[in-house]
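Class prep. Sample record?

___
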Amino acid sequence: PKDPQLFYESFGLMPHPRLKDEITKRPIPVEKLTPYQIRWWKERNDLATPKSNKVGLTTTSGLELFQSRLLPEEAGYDALWVAQTQRMANEHILNLKTMIRWSKNYSKFMITRPDIELFREEKSKASILYIANPYDKKRPSRIIGIGASESSAFSWKYVNRVHGADISLIKAKDQKSFFAGLYSRLANTSGIVKFESVPNGQQGEFWNIVNKSRYHIDVDNLDDDIDPEGMASDFKVWDIPYTEGIASNVITPEFIDKQKRRLGDLLFSQTYECNFLPPGNQWYKPGWFKADNYTVGW
């Protein structure tokens, strides 16, 4: 099924991490995806999403990538799943492989032991998930987990999707070349990019993308030779604050109240309300000088 909810039901319901059956004490299955998970899944434009922590978007992003490898128009292509470090990228791949292994209908598509038609190395491993192509057995698909090193972004072929999880946490000071490599992977496939991340201050390329796309402000003076197609300013920007998580019973009000007390107003606003905090001693925003508008973004 192409519909996210129908695919989720055919894939197999995931256990709720918090709710338990009163009698068996076993986790209760999550029957419905949240409205924001479905909306994010269905989006076919480049998307940058500042989000609250723990709203379940990374999990369904992985399911979306897996589903896309089974569709006629995307089978045989590769997808890059980007994380702040290679270790976290491997963790995302492991979590997705675990979910697929649980699935009665779809576990058969995860390649763990290549048959005679594939090369021996074409099997799922720590950073790569190999997926059988239902339409051409000799051209499997891959979901490749990569960390935020510049060398890891280039040279991948046949990539038609790039997903990023918590990319604001990338530590590299100069991130432009890394993101340029990600964009360039889609040059021959006209693929899509989706980034979702908790904000991490007014710094880094995720912050730059959000501001260029939301306010048309060139925060970091992104050079044309780095981004010749202007992709960093073509993203749709859509916030998912904690209130949407509460409305979908993903986060409880009690948990949020505790976080407010523990984190304080500023850090809570960044972690759960999608706000990018400026440095403590900064009284202006860099984009103001280009926009000539001293209220943009407040």
Notes: Residues 287 and 293 are 8 Å apart (CA to CA). Confidence is low (pLDDT under 50) at residues 222-226. The longest strand covers residues 159-165.
